[in-house]
Amino acid sequence: MAKTIIEKIWEQHIVFEEQGKPDLLYIDLHLLHEVTSPQAFEGLRLNGRKVRRPDLCFATMDHNVPTRNRETITDPISRKQIKTLQDNCDEFGVPLAGINHPDQGIVHVIGPELGLTQPGKTIVCGDSHTSTHGAFGALAFGIGTSEVEHVLSTQTLWQSKPKTMEVRIDGKLGFGVSSKDVILAIISKFGIDMGTGHIMEYTGEAIRGLSMEERMTICNMSIEAGARAGLISPDETTVEYLRGRRHVPEGEAFEKEAARWLALATDEGAQYDTSVTIHADEISPFVTWGTNPSMGSGIAERVPSAADYDKQSDKDALKQALAYMHLEEGTPLSSIDIQHVFIGSCTNARLGDLRAASEIIKGKKVHPSVTAIVVPGSETVKRAAEQEGLDRVFLEAGFEWRETGCSMCLAMNEDSVPAGERCASTSNRNFEGRQGAGSMTHLVSPVMAAAAAIEGHLTDVRNYMEEPVPSA
Amino acid sequence: MKPINKISSVLTPLERKNVDTDQIISKEFLKRIERTGFGKYLFYHWRFHADGTPIEEFVLNDPRFNDSEILVAQENFGCGSSREHAPWAILDYGFRVVIAPSYADIFYNNCVKNGILPIRLKDQEVNDLIDKGQRQEFKLEINLEDQTVTGQDGTRYEFDIDPYWKEMLLKGWDEIALTFQYDSYIAAYEEKQRQAN
């Protein structure tokens, strides 16, 4: 019978199954960070339990780390949380890329970079953006701290099998359209809870044309669509990305693995519980205007009006969002002034993202009323970018060039947007206060962020690009 | 985990949909390394002005709801971050039951693992409860064994729950201890993997 990749991976990982119970699933890779793990390790200690498979764990520090003056963490509670992860990893034998380690970075950037993330694996982390790893054809999902403790103790999780959903993107992406625009457009079209109870698989011509980094951006925000996980069937692009990475096999063994990975792809004719389709022609450079990621539109549009919605709860939600965002119904999106630009996060801080943004900013200046920062996704990304001179491009334009971490995506460290100010941000969430109490977030792609930095307001990046001449 | 079966209390009506976990517990309170003490930070930026004074019109600041153990909100409650600090804050504040038409998946799991009962009722039923709760102090009786919610006016709602989660909530199980009973299956799976490689 034809199967989806979701069913194939699920079936391969069942440790125990019984009617009327969730399945007991084996977990191949457990990623950890400092914020959602301390209570789990403490639980192990209180019950005299150990980590079953430290060799299948990998930890780093990202949420809470400073992006400058790394040696001195001034906040004593932050310092304690970081020290706690160090101590826990020492005590339980968990591999750690700590704050000064050359591999340190955002957990969802370094997993793929090191080749820990591989097709067909079940991957969990106490972080909702674990869905990122789905780009490789892995079944990757975020879990809570109790589940972190459960995986540490047993290397398994009880999981009810979610429904499957195909999200197909037909056609080729248009001029100036990034993968960030694709996922924002999908969530805007189908809703913030379109994926609840589902694992989504992204398919279609547009997906096949994307690099691994671009695919990660899309899978990363599956959680913003409410999905349990989001993934993409592996293909040659996946295999070539992984070739030569530290944690994948070499030579013959790699070719054997690659063949196994490719065989995981969804079979022709496999059925999904639900299918939705969007055409690439519908997608233009996107910005959000509201307080959840579904509240967005193409840059040429205006802030919607209550009259655009039928349901009373949608009208109420619009009113609440616009009150928080200090925006009026009908305002053209390109007229919204911004004071901050953040290029970073597990969504958009990989080398390709920085290259794309640097192309726009090259030779230009950041608008005098804007503070703009670049926070590379990992130390590896940072080193590679510096080798290409991208840091110089950003610095000369007036951006700050920082150390790696989650930074202004959630502002747990000192990088935050002040109350009443707006940020064009390449991150994934525009919830109230996400980037600082009272701050207002507009989610955009890296190139849209770069264009906003130059002009001081949201703007169409296509004005900064040369449209390729169609070949005859 | 504390077992839960019957809860009887006034409901707290929170008339909002898509309430995300950033609102339930804001990031500045995630640095604690304990599971307790998060209640005072629940919905912090909806409860308090920047200077720390209470925002009068927010429902949690209404003294009528001080002893409420049941929070009622609209669809897609708990979306966003996987932070278990959100259910820890809800529990520590004093709620044992949440009622909404739908929940984000991770949040739902996190509730169950902490002895919070997340009840799904229909849109219209939830809106009725919110309406009643806003008009007067409205008492509900929750019965997990029977899977019912009964209002003080006699209205009775039935809800579905996965039998496995129901059992876990009723018994207050330690899930890890339970899984240890399947250790031979886990070991067998690992052995099979070793041989395949």
From TrEMBL, chain A:
CDD domains: IPMI
Molecular functions (GO terms): 3-isopropylmalate dehydratase activity
Catalyzed chemical reaction(s): (2R,3S)-3-isopropylmalate = (2S)-2-isopropylmalate; citrate = D-threo-isocitrate
InterPro entries: 3-IsopropMal_deHydase_lsu, Acnase/IPM_dHydase_lsu_aba_1/3, Acoase/IPM_deHydtase_lsu_aba, Aconitase_4Fe-4S_BS, Aconitase_4Fe-4S_dom, IPM_dehydratase_rel_enz, IPMI_cat
Any Pfam family matching the protein: Aconitase
Keyword Lyase: yes
Similarity annotation: Belongs to the aconitase/IPM isomerase family. LeuC type 1 subfamily.
HAMAP family for this protein: LeuC_type1
Descriptive protein name: 3-isopropylmalate dehydratase large subunit
Source species: Planococcus wigleyi
TrEMBL record, chain B:
Database matches in InterPro entries: 3-IsopropMal_deHydase_ssu, Aconitase/3IPM_dehydase_swvl, AconitaseA/IPMdHydase_ssu_swvl, IPMI_Swivel, LeuD
Keyword annotations: Amino-acid biosynthesis, Branched-chain amino acid biosynthesis, Leucine biosynthesis, Lyase
Gene3D superfamilies: Aconitase, domain 4
GO terms assigned for molecular function: 3-isopropylmalate dehydratase activity
Catalysed reactions, semicolon-separated: (2R,3S)-3-isopropylmalate = (2S)-2-isopropylmalate
Family: Belongs to the LeuD family. LeuD type 1 subfamily.
Function field: Catalyzes the isomerization between 2-isopropylmalate and 3-isopropylmalate, via the formation of 2-isopropylmaleate.
Protein name as annotated: 3-isopropylmalate dehydratase small subunit
